[in-house]
Structures are given as structure tokens and as C-alpha cells.
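Handoff note, outgoing to incoming analyst
You'll be picking up this chain. Sequence as last confirmed:
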Amino acid sequence: MEIIKLFTLGIVQGLTEFLPISSSGHLVIIQKLFAVKENQLLISVLLHFGTLIPVIIIFRKDIIEILKLKEEKRHFIFLIIVASLPTALIGIFFEDFFEKLFSSTISAAFMLIITGFILLIGDKLADYDKDISRFKWFNAVLVGLAQGFAIIPGISRSGSTIVASLIQGLKKEEAARFSFILSIPVIGGAGILKVSEAVNNGVNNFNITAVLLGVLGAVISGYIAIRYFIFILKNKKLIYFSYYCWIVGFIILIIEGLF
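Most recent structure output, in case you need it:
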């Protein structure tokens, strides 16, 4: 049964990571519904880590050019580094606070509602005309702050970073590509730290087979989601995702007895 639970969590993680509806928020809610007993934050990080695989596969040409330090990619590398710094600092200084939120479905529900308004802002204020080459360091800092804020369960990482890019004029395709590649150093670094922490502290009653299948589910569903996300971003409005976040958020609050 634990295998089915974590595989389902993985599928949800992969789908929600690349749609602006908060993967961490959905994981918090589903983990409580399924009564998953494992370390919740560690599982969340590991499943996030699984979604890096489809990002690397789909954007492998960009990543190879970045690793080769090609001239045309140097500005992009600079932006990735600048945007990653605020996220890392927020994660380091507020880690304990964020970890507590991973056990609160009420907090996740409220944050999903906030995500809906973030997407609404992006839908109303976005002006898509800039190439990534026109982005400056302060533009990247704003995107990095948005990504740091999205560590809170219920706040969508992809939604926050894409909206932060869109309201600064970045084209839709460029905003999505920047957001996805930006996830690699942040999620990868967090995953390595949490895995190391778990090993050092000892992991009790940790079903490694179930977790690995969960990661596999995240890889498969993440690949499918990312393949279609740019198409959705170009042809649909972000407001549709706002409706989804509001509905799910209020349903959870009703279930928890707040309404």
C-alpha cells in the first residue's frame, strides 16, 4: 500500500511541478489524506529531485551549451546564478519555518488561494515582448525572490517565477524556459542537502523501494507535463489555473472545518 501511495504522490508531483498549481501544496494535502508516515519534507524534496530528470532531458541542448560556457549563453548563466542566490538565502534562513508548514493542510490551502491571485496578476499585467538577452540582474533578483517565496507549500514555484518574469515583459516561451532551467540548481542543491542530512541522522522505517517508485512517477508525469506546458501557456490564460487553485483551496478549508 505504501508503494501505491508514494507512486501516486510522484505522479502528482510531476504534473503539478510544471503547472502553476503548487506541487508542494498538493503533496502536503495528499500526504495527509494518505496518512504517509515517512519524513514528509524529505519525500517532497526527493520527488522534486525526480522532476529534474525531464527538465534535463527536454532542455539538454541548452544545458550542454551552458556547461560549455558558450558565448551566447554567458548572460543566461549570469541570470541563473543571480536568481538562485535569493532563493538559497531564503531557504537557509527560514528552513525551520518552512519545514513546519509541510504538516499544515490549512496553510497549504490558504497559499493555494494566494497562488490563484498571483496568476491573476500575471494574466492582467504581463506584457510579453522581451528576449532573455534584455533581462538585467535586478530582473533576475525579482524572479529569485519569487522562487524563494515559493518554498512555502501552496505557492507555485513555476507560477511565481513565470509570473515574475512575465510582469517584467519576458516572452512566454522565454519565461517558461528560464523558470524550468532555474529549478535545476535550487531543487538539486536542496535534494542533495536533505538526502545527506537523512543519511547522517539515520532514516528509520524508510521504504526506499516505495520512494524510488515515487520518484519514477514524478519523472514520467513531469516529462508529460513539461512537454505540453509551453503549449498551454501560449494558448490558454493563466486565469484558468487561478480558478483551479481557488477551488481546491476553498474545498480543503471546508473539509478542515473553517467554513
